Amino acid sequence: MHEQHLKHYGVRLPSLRNFGGQFTKDALTLVFLAQGYPDTEWVSKSELTQFIREYYPETNDVQSARHLGMQSGFYIVSSRRGNYLPEDKPPPDKSSYLLVTLNEPHPAFLLARRSDTDADFEAIKQQYDYRCATCGSREGEFNLRYKRVRTELQKGHRNPRLPLEGENIIPQCQFCNRADRNYWVYDERGRVIGVADLKPIQKSIRKGYLDNQQVQSLYRYLKRLLGL
C-alpha cells in the first residue's frame, strides 16, 4: 500500500527494527493506529503510550504519531491540533490520534513538499559535503557509530518549534534525527545549543542527573525571570 499510494509523494516508511533488533517506536505506533484498517478509530495518547511501554517500559511521552504525520507524511491527525480532521469521525477528546487513510499523504506534508523540494535539500546536503551535521557520517557510507548500517541523510530541525524549511534544516543521519532530538535546538554545525522542550529537564531532575544545588539554582533563576 505504501509502495502504491504513498512512496511517490516522498512519504517515508518507518524502519521496522532498530540496530538492537527491537521494533522501532514509529513502526509500533503505525501498527497500533492501523488496527481495523480501513475502519480505524481514534486512539488516545494514553492508550498509545501504554502500548509502547510494553516494548519500551521507560517511555514517558510518545511523539511518534505526530512525527509520522507531520514529518514522514502519513495521514495521521491529532485532535489537539484540530487540523484536517475528518467530518465523519469527530475526536472523542483533545489528546487523541487517528490514522485517516493510507491511500494519500497528510495534506500538510504535501504543502510542505511544494515549498521545500528535494532539490532544495540536495543543495543543503551539498553544503555539508553529504555528511550528517551532528555526527559527520557520510551519506551512503557505513555510519560512524553503527558500523553495519549505511547512512541515510534526513531533514532535521535546527529548532523544532519552527517550520522545517530553509535555514532551519540541517542534514542528519537516521540515528541523529531520532524523535527525541525534537527536545533540542541545534546550531548550523549540528551542535546542541538549547532546549526546546521541558521533558529532558524534568527527566534530569527526576533521575538525579541535576543535583539539589543545581535544581535550587534553576528555581531561583525562574523566580527572577518571572518576577515572583
Tell me what the structure shows.
This protein has 228 residues and is α+β, with helices and mostly antiparallel strands. The chain is built from eight helices and seven strands. It folds into three domains: 108 residues, Arc Repressor Mutant, subunit A (Orthogonal Bundle); 80 residues, no CATH class; 31 residues. Strands 1-3-2 form a three-stranded antiparallel β-sheet. The chain has a two-stranded antiparallel sheet with strand order 4-5. It has a two-stranded antiparallel ribbon with strand order 6-7. The chain starts with a helix and ends with a helix.
In a nutshell, what does this entry contain?
By secondary structure, the chain is α+β, with helices and mostly antiparallel strands. 32% of the residues lie in helices and 13% in strands. It has helices spanning 2-6, 25-33, 45-53, 64-70, 107-115, 118-127, 199-207, 212-226; strands at residues 43-44, 75-78, 96-101, 153-157, 169-173, 184-186, 192-195.
Write the layout of secondary structure elements.
Blueprint lengths: L1 H5 L18 H9 L9 E2 H9 L10 H7 L4 E4 L17 E6 L5 H9 L2 H10 L25 E5 L11 E5 L10 E3 L5 E4 L3 H9 L4 H15 L2
Antiparallel strand pairs: 1-3, 2-3, 4-5, 6-7
Helix pairs in contact: 2-4
Q: What are the salient characteristics of this protein?
A:
three-stranded antiparallel β-sheet; Arc Repressor Mutant, subunit A; globular; 228 residues; alpha+beta; 7 strands; 3 domains
